[in-house]
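Input/output pair, single chain:
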Amino acid sequence: MANNIVLIGMPGTGKTSVGREIATLLGWNFVDTDAEIVGRTGRSIETIFNESGETAFRRLESDVLKEASDKSDTVIAVGGGAVVDPGNKCLVLQSGFVVALNSRSDTIAHRLSGEVEVRPLLSGGDPLDLIEQLYLARRESYESAHWTVQTDCLDVMEVAREVIRAWDLLRHRNQGHQGDGDKVAAVVHSRNGASPIYVGSGILAGFGEQCQKAGLSSTAYLVSDRTVFSHYGRLVQRSLEEAGIPTHILTISPGESSKTLETAGMVYGWLAGLRAERGHFVVALGGGVVGDLAGFVAATFNRGMPFVQVPTSLAAMVDASIGGKTAIDLAQGKNLVGAFNQPRFIYADPQTLVTLSARQRAAGWAEAIKHGLIMDEPLLEIFEKNQNEVQGLESPIATEVIRRSMAIKAEVVSKDERETLGIRTLLNYGHTVGHALETATGYDQLLHGEAVSIGMCAAAYIAQEVGLVGEEIVERQRSLLEAYSLPTRYQGVDVDQVRQAMAVDKKSVSGNIHWVLLEKVGSALVRSDVPDLAVDAALQKVT
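Output:
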């Protein structure tokens, strides 16, 4: 495949304007086949259709397309009907990375209504009907593209950046283990496009270059906590600035206590003072707290800014950075104010984990073990059989466990981004009691992973109480968690406070908690009919 990007799609989807923007961002050449035909013949497309017919126009189109296809490092915007011809379709697919730009019929009609030039195939009838008929006739050809971008709700720059992200991702895949290809652990697919997850030891120094490849070349606003920044902040800043990206820095206090409306307000004020624009981007460098806070601010400031996750804790890598959930806490509960905001990409360097305390590392393994418990028994067996290697972060097995765990969550999120299908809810295993424990202890006694570990034990006891699992599974889970230095109970907490916190949890619907419970190792389900007595019995065992 040649190193080109080819844009196909209906008239009005933005091929020309987007193509020019992509070419500018990449420093490539740009060819618009329709404009090339007009330039060569000295006639408008309408005139060619009227005087010579569509067949003659398609011959000219094929000639121009063949010449453009011989080029390299070129963005080619192809006429809407070019790929209907089988020969042209084959040529296009061999010319480079083919992206179909798609839009609703009413969007296309609105965009074309202001054009002076008449589209020959869209004249002489109701515009919406003609557009829909034309699309149906061409749909199969457009669906042959390597990638599709829905452009209705995106501006030109946003579409261009999405195309570049997709092209970069495919290039990595095609390179296999060359260059950056081996760093792509998974991809989160959402309504806003694809979010690649890059994982690799020592990749942090190349962060700025990766931002450029993703189309993020304007001003960066780096948010980190003071501890993380002291270790890695200057490295990331230098990487961004060497890539020609001006960078502003804000550090916050470490810990859950920074995930507040007050801190968010401070970050808003900082961005406003620096005149941050929608085209700029936010970088979240740190653990889950930083990612949640910075992601929430990015989702809401200026009605939305792009952001990138650079997780430096194990818990953030395998869980918090993936999926687009961003939030801040209230006194009444954890993550009660939030927004879905998918990062442009996630950039995880396992070397950052060496500066974590043993306790922080252990807390991170809780989320990864959770993925094995609910969906991947072979992953759980790796944890069981390779405890020393995994806990010691010995490569490659520790890195592979991290990549595999991240890929599991990416797959779930891609299937159920907004938790509307019930699939993503499974990721909440252990979180109902876990979040309640964090709330009841003021967010300063338990790390998130520690609370989830205790919550998983509570969930296992509940599953045993309602007859889903036997004692052997309960014990298998407990033994593994303890082997990774994770707590399986927490004494001294007010159980009534835990119950109250569960009642206001986001997973509670009309006062009815949707519990995620194991039915076997590697498989979980959601139950909303758990008796209070079973919950009380479980809480007594973990508190």
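The CA atoms of residues 325 and 340 lie 5 Å apart. The first helix runs from residue 15 to 26.
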